[in-house]
């Protein structure tokens, strides 16, 4: 998104959305892995399901939408590039996501993985980390074309390979060339030692 109030030294915000089984979590994790330290990965499922243990329902006036976007704002304020991923249904998340995007002074991009219901079920059944969700449940949750409708929203079509998806996100978001702004690794002595001695990088964390 090109915003008139954007500043060059603000962190980058990346939002990756899509239906369950669309590949958004795997892609987001790979984007963060390739970027390295200095980027925070926020997964909707972990924050809502594990941290809050809250059901994803409008009937309970859920806390998760506000909590997740507040977490993203905090990470951005602390100098982290943020990769936020999840289904993030517009019914419950559109308002808070629009606020997050509108109030962020730095570069921000939104991606939507547009994958059919049959393909999401196929990917779900073949994933390395199965989750306790049945195909029938996935059909009930599936929402076709649930776009956030913000300027520059990038739709990644089903035929895209995993590599194409990750490359698109890295390049279109600008993360591929964004410098770290958080304390680690920018001011981290441990990271500096690894940079000076790359042969030790594989044995330290």
In short:
By secondary structure, the chain is α/β, with parallel strands linked by helices. The chain has helices spanning 24-35, 44-52, 64-77, 90-103, 117-125, 135-141, 162-173, 183-186, 189-196; strands at residues 13-18, 39-43, 81-86, 108-114, 154-157.
Q: Which structural class best describes the helix and strand composition? A: alpha/beta
Give the DSSP E fraction (strand runs of 2 or more residues).
5-15%
Assign the CATH superfamily: P-loop containing nucleotide triphosphate hydrolases
Whole-number mean pLDDT:
90
Second-tier CATH architecture: 3-Layer(aba) Sandwich
Tell me the number of helical segments per DSSP (H or I, 4 or more residues long): 9
Helix and strand run:
EHEHHEHEHHEHHH
Overall helicity:
40-55%
List the topology elements.
Layout: E1 13-18, H1 24-35, E2 39-43, H2 44-52, H3 64-77, E3 81-86, H4 90-103, E4 108-114, H5 117-125, H6 135-141, E5 154-157, H7 162-173, H8 183-186, H9 189-196
Helix pairs in contact: 1-7, 3-4
Describe this structure in words.
The protein has 205 residues and is an alpha/beta fold. It contains 9 helices and 5 strands; from the N terminus they run βαβααβαβααβααα. The chain has a 5-stranded parallel beta sheet with strand order 2-3-1-4-5, with helices on both faces. The mean pLDDT is 90.
Question: Which keywords apply here?
Answer:
205 residues; alpha/beta; Rossmann fold; five-stranded parallel β-sheet; 9 helices
